[in-house]
Design goal:
Structural class: mainly alpha
GO biological process, one term: DNA catabolic process
InterPro entries: Exonuc_VII_S, Exonuc_VII_ssu_sf
EC number: 3.1.11.6
Enzyme class: hydrolase
Keywords: Coiled coil, Cytoplasm, Exonuclease, Hydrolase, Nuclease
Length: 69
């Protein structure tokens, strides 16, 4: 379950840490599956945040374009 206070930056940092651990093989085989599962959750979270931010920005731009200067 995702932490409701998780920020994009924190999730991205955690993903980078997991990637480093896997690349340097500092993760035991027993822990690897849990790390990969967590990485998958973090990727899903980051993608959702990016999509939500993109939609918000597009909405703001549409509102700005609708208003005459």
């Amino acid at each position: 379950m995702m932490d409701t206070n998780l920020t994009y930056e924190a999730a991205y940092k955690e993903l980078q840490q997991i990637a480093r651990e896997i690349e340097t093989e500092s993760v035991s085989v027993d822990v690897l599956a849990a790390k990969v599962k967590r990485a998958s959750e973090l990727i899903t979270f980051c993608q959702a945040r990016l999509r939500a931010t993109e939609a918000e920005v597009e909405n703001i731009i549409q509102q700005m374009e609708a208003r005459p200067l």
